[in-house]
Amino acid sequence: MNHNKGLEEQVKQADWITIGTIGLFFFIFGFVTWLNGILIPYLKIACELNHFQSYLVAFAFYIAYVIMAVPSAWVLKRTGLKSGMMTGLFIMSAGALLFIPAALTRTYIIFLSGLFIMGCGLAIMQTASNPYITLLGPLESGAKRISIMGICNKSAGIVATLLFGVMALSDGDALMAKLQSLDDQQRAIMLDELARRVVIPYIGMACILAFIGIMVRISKLPELDPDKKNVASVNNGTEKRTSIFQFPYLLLGVIAIFCDVGLEIVAGDTIISYGLSQGIPVSIAKYFTSMTMVAMIIGYTAGIIAIPRYISQSTALKICAVLGIILTIAAVISPKMGSVVFVALLGMANSLIWPSVWPLAIEGLGRFTGIGSSLLIIGNLGGALVPLLYGRLADAVDPKTAYLILIPLYFYVLFYALKGHKTGKYLKV
Asked: Mind listing the pLDDT tens digit for each residue in 360-396?
């Protein structure tokens, strides 16, 4: 009996080592992804952009997920988990290096190209990591494990935005005031100097990503076949279905992920620019994305404690959707700093949407799990399109009123929590 107990402890220890390794990947995701919150106002100043143009940062980054989602599944099928993740990290490293010529020439399209390439690498990483951590244990506690990953992700976001904020926008208020008083030639010289501030940070990032890629390749991270691991856990006739399109709850889940990523990116990436539009100094506004990350971490912590012991994954979704609607309305009707605080608190409402939708959407897919995960990754398109829509409305109306576009997205999440995640799950075929 003691021998068996020792084996069980070894297995649990191995699982936690694996969770820790995947947690490192999610930290990387967060560091790279949430830098966009600082990059948007930074490039808006350095490249002299309007709201819509500045949110092309999010578009270039997240459109890569859509383009690479299905190819990522093919790559991982051929290479396996570890080699695929190594490939993703090397691609991200190459994208980071593009920031060097972009900064030296202050060319916005090269910045966007670098972000697109980094997004391609992240698509491979996420296509592997999300189903992996979901299926590492019981599916009903999948949201708990993804919430742990979320804490890693958003902690990295806090570090990234604070660090980059100090490096790139430490003197933002003085800089913006001085730019107004310069002639075109002097203005160009100062903007060139501002653009070059990202060279050293992104060289460092490229080196770290490449190093971690090598470490992943030589690590003892176990291989896991999601298609075999996620056998039909529900009596839904999976073995008789012949197409991924015969799983309506998955397809509805893709739309839910679209809404979620759009909600997350608008709340996290627009809040600094929004604060500036409300007359708040750069010295204060540069910390606003970190406020959103802290709110998300609070939400993740609640999910780790409550799911599935006290509430189900679908109940968590309902709570998040209703809270998001209330906070959005509060943000629109509140003045200045109060409004910014409510936008930051949207991080709490958004926190458990992804962790809850993912296990509900892939449950019982069996041999379709791989392609199903790829389709869910396509849902990242929300991060590309929703911020652009917000930016267009911000230019046409005003940045505060533009937040009303979030309400229909929260209502869809509520629909998925109430009905969508069950649609066709027990279909007899």
From this structure: 998 888 778 778 888 888 898 998 899 999 999 999 9
The torsion defined by the Cα of 146, 152, 157 and 159, in degrees rounded to 10, comes to 170
**What are the phi and psi torsion angles at 19 (to 5°)?**
-60, -40
Ranges of each domain in the chain: 2-422
Quick check: 382 and 268 in contact, CB under 8 A? no
Residue with tokens 């780790």: 304
pLDDT tens for 263-297 read 999 998 899 889 988 989 888 888 898 899 899 99
* pTM listed for this prediction: 0.80
The secondary structure of 82-124 as a DSSP string is: HHHHHHHHHHHHHHHHTHHHHHHHT-HHHHHHHHHHHHHHHHH
* CATH 1.20.1250.20 holds for 2-422: yes
- For residue 36, the tally of other CB atoms under 10 A from its CB is 26
Residue ranges in the chain whose pLDDT is less than 50: 1-11, 14, 233, 429
Backbone angles phi, psi at 91, to 5 degrees: -65, -45
Q: Are 415 and 353 in contact (CB under 8 A)?
A: no
Residue appearing with tokens 């903007």 = 191
> What is the distance between the alpha carbons of residues 230 and 220, in angstroms, rounded to a whole number?
22
- Judged on CB neighbours under 10 Å (0-12, 13-18, 19+), 161 is buried
Closest to 51 measured CA to CA, from 406, 401, 411: 401
Query: Please, are residues 279 and 336 in contact by the beta-carbon 8 Å criterion?
Result: yes
d(CA 165, CA 183): 27
